[in-house]
Specification:
Layout lengths: L10 H9 L7 H17 L1 H12 L12 H8 L4 H18 L7 E4 L5 E8 L2 E5 L8 H14 L3 E5 L10 H10 L4 E2 L3 H10 L9 E3 L4 H10 L4 E2 L7 E6 L5 H12 L6 E6 L2 H14 L6 H11 E5 L3 H11 L3 E5 L15 E4 L5 H6 L25 E8 L2 H17 L3 H8 L4 H10 L1
């Protein structure tokens, strides 16, 4: 049941309740992860293989570390043609959206001969972490791999823990196949993150690691950040629904539960102008949850981190939403497209009653790797831009530098950096020039 929460206070205070949800990382977890990372830094393959055997129960070596072509082929036999069709369709949707994020290099050519610009270059090596074992998320492969490949990343590899039989889940193999990724390492956990962040005798170091994982994986990514780049430290999932009095309570209840089923810390919030709608949504929640497999998780998440906030008008609803800065924002109002100008902070926005959030998880084309816990105020969804880097360049002729030299020298000296000033001054030291001419 959604509890009606008090909104007769500062909206920023209301937002704090929903932004402070995070799985606590105990000192024991952090210490364990740091020990794993240090061991792999010092001992490479030997430490990595020991951890895989300990945590996954799989005897690994440099000979079976990668999924072989035979394993690939055998695994794909267990994926039916219709599922492959769905993966191809999803990939096409994601490509169609993310293609528009490509940005070219550019240059400025001034009349005085100055040339300046920016080079846009893809990262060379990216690793995609995909949870494995009993859980399998082929959508994770598509959402991370497609923008990386569109950006032009040369080497995209997957690391994923194996099942008890030492095999990678077939639907992960299928998603990799659809994306054209051939290198899959049968490793996971903090040990996998450490191995690709620092490299081992067998595994080459990468430039960036992306993808979700458990608390050990998330902690490891945080620890190796700086040695490599990462996508983000994602927190528990969340959805916020803004609805007017005409919204369908059946749809709202279904969408709230779709996020609440992720885990016990998931957040599901309704902001509406109608007290009656809250009551109707609660009736639907009680009815629909009975048929769902993760009933207990849904009920706990909604009880602890859900809620309904009734506001006097939609302007207040969007103002409150902007303070919360949700990962997923659904707008179930009349003329939802007209509400876009009111939205400042949200990871991904779903407009209208036939654009539910799960569509974005799989098939709409927008990315489902999103900022959580209020970080949508300053972070964006994963995109092509996360897999490129930008280098500025400039060229100044001597006569143009001469017009700047005195100002640059003064600026440098004001900061006490005489070496900087000298770097400019020596280029216009006429005595030095005359001496060089005499010696030549």
């Amino acid at each position: 049941m959604l509890n009606k929460l008090d909104v007769h206070q500062d909206f920023a205070e209301v937002a704090k309740k929903f932004q402070n949800r995070k799985a606590s990382v105990s000192k024991e977890v952090t210490d364990a992860v740091e020990k794993i990372i240090e061991n792999i830094r010092e001992n490479g393959d030997g430490a990595l293989f020991d951890y895989v055997k300990t945590f996954d129960g799989f005897e690994i070596s440099k000979d079976n570390l990668k999924v072989s072509p035979e394993e690939f082929e055998e695994g794909l036999k267990n994926v039916d043609a219709n599922y492959l069709r769905i993966l191809h369709r999803a990939k096409a949707q994601i490509e169609a959206f993310h293609t528009h994020q490509l940005s070219p290099s550019w240059g400025i050519y001034k009349e005085d001969g100055v040339i300046m610009g920016q080079l846009v270059r893809p990262l060379e090596n990216v690793a995609l972490y995909v949870p494995g074992g009993t859980a399998a998320y082929p959508s994770t492969v598509l959402m991370n791999a497609v923008p990386a490949l569109l950006a032009g990343v040369k080497n995209v590899v997957i690391l994923t823990p194996v099942r008890a039989d030492g095999k990678v889940n077939p639907i992960i193999l299928a998603a990799a196949k659809v994306c054209g990724i051939e290198t899959i390492y049968k490793i996971g956990g903090a040990q996998g993150i450490a191995a690709l962040a620092y490299g081992t005798q067998t595994l080459p170091k990468v430039d960036k690691i992306v993808g979700p994982g458990n608390i050990y994986v998330a902690t490891a990514k945080k620890c190796v950040y700086g040695q490599v780049d990462i996508d983000m430290i994602a927190g528990p999932s969340e959805v916020l629904v803004i609805a007017d009095e005409n919204a369908n309570p059946k749809y709202i209840a279904a969408d709230l539960m779709a996020q609440a089923e992720h885990d016990l810390l998931a957040s599901a919030i309704l902001i509406t102008t109608s007290n009656q709608l809250v009551d109707e949504v609660n009736v639907e929640l009680a009815r629909q949850v009975q048929t769902l497999a993760r009933k207990s998780i849904i009920e706990s998440a909604i009880e602890n981190y859900g809620g309904a906030l009734v506001v006097s008008n939609l302007k207040d609803a969007f103002e409150l939403s902007n303070q919360i800065a949700p990962e997923h924002l659904e707008v179930l109002t009349e003329n939802p497209l007209e509400k876009l100008p009111l939205i400042k902070n949200a990871g991904s926005i779903f407009l209208g009653e036939y654009t539910p959030e799960p569509l974005g998880d799989y098939m709409s084309g927008t990315n489902h790797v999103l900022p959580t816990g209020g970080t949508a105020k300053f972070y964006s969804a994963l995109g092509v831009y996360d897999f490129v880097k930008h280098s500025a360049y400039s060229y100044y002729p001597r006569d143009v530098l001469e017009t700047f030299k005195d100002d640059v020298i003064t600026f440098a000296n004001s900061e006490g950096l005489s070496g900087h000033a000298n770097s400019i001054a020596v280029r216009f030291d006429e005595k030095d020039d005359e001496k060089l001419e005499e010696e030549s």
